[in-house]
TrEMBL record:
Organism placement in taxonomy: Bacteria, Pseudomonadati, Bacteroidota, Cytophagia, Cytophagales
Reaction catalysis annotation: The enzyme specifically hydrolyzes (1->4)-beta-D-galactosidic linkages in type I arabinogalactans
Organism: Belliella marina
Top-level EC class: hydrolase
The keyword Cell inner membrane appears for this protein: no
Protein's name in the database: Arabinogalactan endo-beta-1,4-galactanase
EC number per UniProt: 3.2.1.89
Superkingdom, natural source: Bacteria
InterPro entries (alphabetical): GH (IPR017853), Glyco_hydro_53 (IPR011683)
Family, as annotated: Belongs to the glycosyl hydrolase 53 family.
Length: 660
């Protein structure tokens, strides 16, 4: 072989090797295993050191890279040293971000830059305007966004560490740079126009400075499909661009895994863009689940995940790796390297309500108090457990109210009536009688109704995402407790007569704005469905007389992605008008929403109320719950001595005639 041929073959070999290496590199980045580790400079400044599996001190970025992480996200604040800024030491400013970016690129990893456009945290609860931009609005504020974004990216590009992906804003589903860019559920077109003008200013700076970098829009709507689509559709309308959809997903705020799967698949099918879950709180239970859900997105549009500030979980206080966490990533890496591997992910749950009609129910939450005063209940002269008496008279459901801490100052009962332990005792009697059980969360230490929705004393200091997280964890824990006791509720009310909101003042509905309330209600719904997706979820209002405001309420919560199964209404003639008006309203509601309906509180017109619900269109009337059946003043099925009266006779007749 002559020298010329040898040189040609050598060149071809090198070209092949180069192409092969490039393909291998691209293959590695098909799915991002990432993390936001913006806290690293702070913990290192406090003396934290990190060690690899061989107990050798190393750069934490390098340790992650050697454990199959290939993407790192960093947040950046405009001036964290400002008076109300994030850090007097300047953490998360341009200088610190540049230093971290160099470590990321040195480790051969991708780098995502997350612009918060604030001097401190920007998220759905807050998007504070940077102090140096105070007084700017309109075009001047857009110019501030553009110039700042361009300056930061130019510095990073000049230093050879340009980000591979750029977020224009952090969790901006409620807008950014408030008040000008604020966006809530009562947003006008002018509000949308202002926000999108700010976003496009950042977009323009990214496109001009780093035309090869990907542009991400980041929303905190992991399991909220309707809201995600609303936002992305508005972006298209206003000419706002994005290459990647970024979503936060935290179980306490963003729905169930089923909600996440349903949303991601739909967004991929609708918009055809790559999707990243760019924030999730990593734990040993959810890492594989969330990564597999993203990996399973249709058409390989699942781009990857980024665990949010996971180093406290991944490393012990001594800086040594927690083997169990890195073993999960090793498993993920090995599986995803296999071209034939397909994650086993449950399909989105299609919830079906299987409730036998008619519901003939009673709220008897007062019973333990009455029994403590010496009341005994009899039917036809025979003393029995009141639950058994109701069952003997064709009642098949019992409703029990639950207060958070009735023994607190200002609470309902120093003896703990209607608290968790007392409600469990009553639920045991209900289940022992073979009856079904509706649990009514009041989310208060005392009565919650249209005129009052007092915050539980122990929750008084909570607001924003902290309160949303609390309603989720409280609801979740309570439902689990009932199930663990063998007392699974077949139905749950998330709030009591809540057409004016709940957990006031945070969750009070003011005018057309119900944003905070809907966030709380979404959390309560997700908490129930996470424990048991087959439990029916009721939303209960007291607007049987008011069709206009019933529609306004349900349209609002449905538009804000609140998931529920059953419409509950209270009906008392003294507040809610005559039977004919109530009936016509319920018919309209059944025809509009196609959801089952229950009159979950009533006292007068016992026979007529049950007949009206029975005859609602398309069989959507499930039944009724008479309120405080044992009280002569309210339900009036028993006299003052605890004996059944003539009103009790209505129910066996209604039940026997129901199917005729």
């Amino acid at each position: 072989m002559n020298l010329k041929k040898l040189r040609i073959l050598s060149l071809l070999f090198l070209m092949t090797l180069s192409v092969s290496s490039f393909a291998s590199k691209n293959e590695e980045k098909k799915f991002r295993i990432g993390a936001d580790i913006s806290f690293v400079p702070q913990v290192e400044a406090q003396g934290m050191k990190f060690y690899d599996e061989n107990n050798v001190e190393r750069d934490v970025v390098e340790i992650l890279a050697n454990n199959h992480f290939n993407s790192i996200r960093l947040r950046i604040f405009v001036d964290p040293r400002a008076e109300k800024g994030y850090s007097k030491e300047g953490f998360c400013d341009l200088e610190n971000t540049l230093a971290m970016a160099k470590r990321i690129k040195k480790a051969g990893m991708e780098f995502t830059l997350d612009f918060h456009y604030s001097d401190t945290w920007a998220d759905p609860d807050k998007q504070f305007k940077p102090s140096s931009w105070e007084g700017a609005s309109g075009k001047a504020l857009e110019d501030s966004v553009y110039n700042y974004t361009k300056r930061v990216l130019t510095v990073l590009k000049k230093e050879g560490v340009a980000p591979d992906m750029v977020q224009v804003g952090n969790e901006i589903n409620h807008g950014m740079i408030w008040p000008e860019g604020k966006l809530m559920d009562d947003a006008t077109e002018d509000d949308w126009k202002t926000l999108m003008g700010l976003y496009v200013a950042g977009q323009k700076a990214v496109r001009e400075t780093l035309p090869d970098s990907k542009l991400m829009v980041h929303l905190a709507l992991g399991g909220q499909n309707g809201l995600s689509r609303d936002f992305l559709d508005k972006m298209k309308l206003y000419g706002a661009e994005y290459d990647v959809v970024g979503l936060s997903y935290y179980e306490k705020w963003h729905g169930t895994y089923s909600d996440l799967k349903e949303n991601l698949d739909d967004l991929a099918n609708t918009y055809g863009k790559p999707i990243v879950v760019c924030e999730y709180g990593a734990n040993q239970e959810n890492i594989k689940i969330i990564n597999d859900i993203v990996r399973s997105i249709p058409d390989n549009l699942g781009m990857g995940t980024m665990a949010w500030e996971p180093l406290r979980a991944y490393f012990g206080k001594d800086g040594k790796p927690v083997k169990e966490f890195f073993a999960i990533y090793e498993q993920i890496h090995q599986q995803y390297e296999d071209p034939n591997f397909s994650p086993k992910v449950d399909l989105p749950i299609e919830r079906t309500l299987a409730i036998e009609k008619p519901i003939i129910g009673a709220d008897i939450s007062f019973v333990p108090q009455m029994e403590a005063r010496g009341t005994k209940y009899t039917d036809k002269g025979v003393e029995k457990d009141v639950v058994e008496i109701l069952k003997d008279n064709s009642f098949n459901w019992i409703r029990l109210r639950l207060f958070v801490d009735p023994t607190s100052e200002g609470g309902y009962s120093k003896e703990g009536y209607c608290g968790l332990e007392e409600t469990i005792k009553m639920a045991k009697r209900v289940k022992a009688a073979g009856m079904k059980f509706l649990l009514d969360f009041h989310y208060s230490d005392t009565w919650a109704d249209p005129g009052k929705q007092f915050m539980p004393v122990s929750w008084a200091e909570l607001k924003g995402s902290a309160l949303e997280g609390k309603i989720y964890s409280y609801t979740n824990e309570v439902v689990r407790r009932f199930i663990d006791e063998g007392l699974r509720p077949e139905m749950i009310q998330i709030g009591n007569e809540i057409h004016n909101g709940m957990l006031w003042p945070v969750g009070k509905i003011e005018g057309d704005s119900a944003e905070s309330f809907c966030l709380l209600l979404r959390g309560a719904s997700a908490a129930v469905r996470e424990v048991d997706p087959d439990i029916g979820i009721m939303v209960h209002i007291a607007k049987a007389h008011d069709l206009k405001n019933s529609i306004k309420f349900f349209d609002k919560i449905i538009s804000r992605d609140v998931k529920f199964d059953i419409i509950g209404q209270s009906y008392y003639p003294e507040w809610h008008g005559n039977l004919e008006n109530m009936e016509s309203n319920m018919i309209e509601i059944a025809n509009r929403y196609h959801k089952p309906i229950i009159i979950v509180e009533y006292k007068e017109h016992k026979k007529e109320v049950n007949e009206i619900v029975k005859n609602l269109p398309n069989g959507l009337g499930l039944g009724t719950f008479i309120w405080e059946a044992t009280s002569p003043r309210w339900g009036d099925l028993f006299d003052r001595n605890g004996a059944t009266n003539k009103n009790m006779k209505i129910y066996p007749v209604f039940y026997n005639d129901y199917s005729k």
